[in-house]
Amino acid sequence: MNPTASPIWHKSTLPTAEIERFTVGRDRELDLYLAESDVLGSMAHITMLQSIGLLTADELQVLLAELRRILGDIRAGKFLIEEGVEDVHSEVELLLTRRLGDVGKKIHSGRSRNDQVLVDLKLWTRRQLHDIVLLVKELFDELQRQSEKYRNILLPGYTHLQVAMPSSFGLWFGAYAESLADDMLFLQAAYRLVNRNPLGSAAGYGSSFPLNRQMTTDLLGFDSMDFNVVYAQMGRGKMERNVSFALASVAGTIAKLAFDACLFNSQNFGFVKLPDECTTGSSIMPHKKNPDVFELTRAKCNKLQALPQQVTLIMNNLPSGYFRDLQIIKEVFLPAFDELKDCLRMTTYIIERIRVNEHILDDPRYDLMFSVEEVNRLASNGVPFRDAYKKVGLDIEAGNFRPVKEVHHTHEGSIGNPCNAEIAALMDRILSDFHFERVEEAERKLAEG
Ligand code: ARG
Predict the structure, then answer these.
(1) pLDDT tens, residue by residue, 174-192
(2) Mean pLDDT over all residues of the chain?
(3) I need a labelling partner for 230 at 20 to 30 A (CA). Which of 8, 159, 299, 367 fits?
(4) Which of 8, 86, 205, 327 best tests ligand 1's pocket when mutated (most atoms within 8 Å of CB)?
(5) Tens digit of pLDDT for each residue in 370-409?
(6) Residues 235, 99 share a domain
């Protein structure tokens, strides 16, 4: 096994090709997710280095201009991590050194790839969470729109999958909207944890250079920093796990919605119908129109709910300080965002198009769900509840129960008063606390100069 080409930081002995293959793993592919963030992080870092006298003003300008070119290439899809280069951090530094000579070798003062990957992951995740928030809001709006549209269309409610009490499409769609409002709180907590700057923790123990961490915090638009450098490094894995919980919360909502929709779309229920062009066929049964989109979103979202466990198990029992184990988290964490985004988009797409059966209750099999309405009617007229319950029960047994298929539910959150406006206000309050514009402005200023 031959030693590999000399990376920028290697001294006299090199790992063999086999060792390099195994330790680099999937970084050349996965670190591409982090490339833009890596460049932004470097721009902030070197701007700070110049302010503390470790680069001249001219050197800074030359480096920033080249980093801007690299950023342009990344955005244009013209960036890759070469064979023999370990990761995105080394590739960017190599490009600078190749193109600018010795000045390129100065940028790594006062940092380590450990805090570099930390800051890359934070910047990238912050952007991804922003995307997820917008997609969750789109689905939320669509669910609320459908809830209002079909507000008064009744639907059987089930307990134990047995016909139970009247529900409505207003409640059904609206329930998933409210679930997303709760998920949004998790996303916000995740966003706040992410929005703190780990840069300057270097290998996990800080630096003897007088780094100005507040400056990089401001330049990168972070709310604040992970102050203690040991804690900053401990955030690797913890950040991903906490964000995964937020993603899993959203995924849990979508998976349940998908299951309801599959069930309600079955001929045996017939409560909703997907337009033909949103279904798939069978290779043998000419009549089939399958709800594959909901089945796939259900499976993908169930899988996403395993993400917090996957992250936890990868980093479980690691003491403080950096370990290469942490690299493996990227394999499960980075692709999860595209998967969830796709599920959110497809769910919104189908919910927009789903058709509702407005005549479900014409079928006498649902008559008994009005039994409690009748008990309550008698109780409102002065019959003690237990006596009313017994009378209706006996009528049902004797085959004498004749439902009045009307409901008069008025309390908060009930069929007659689903409180969609209150739920929308809750969502708006949460959204107004994100302050994405501050972050976008900082990133734009840094990238454009
Ligand atoms: N690829 C590495 C990771 O994701 C980058 C940091 C490498 N640091 C180190 N000390 N080997 O963790």
Answers:
(1) 999 999 999 999 999 999 9
(2) 95
(3) 8
(4) 327
(5) 999 999 999 999 999 999 999 999 999 999 999 999 999 9
(6) no
The CATH number assigned to the domain holding 80 equals 1.10.275.10
Residues spanned by the domain of 438: 113-150+166-358+419-448
Q: Tally the domains of the chain.
A: 3
Contact at 8 Å (CB) between 213 and 243? no
The closest residue, in CA terms, to atom 1 on ligand 1 is: 327
Q: Does residue 1 register a pLDDT over 50?
A: no
Same domain, 76 and 211: no
Ligand 1 proximity of 27 Cβ (cutoff 6 Å): yes
pTM assigned to the model: 0.95
Q: Residue 314 is encoded by which pair of tokens?
A: 């990868």
Nearest Cα to Cα of residue 44 among 319, 350, 445, 390: 445
- Residues 182, 77 within the same domain: no
Q: 13 and 37 share a domain?
A: yes
Q: How far is CA 87 from CA 105, 169, 322, 446, in A?
A: 16, 51, 16, 23
Nearest alpha-carbon partner for 108 in 212, 9, 198, 23: 9
CA dist 187 and 112 (Å) reads: 29
**Strand pairing class (196-197; 224-225):** parallel
- 117 CA distance to ligand 1 centroid (A)? 7
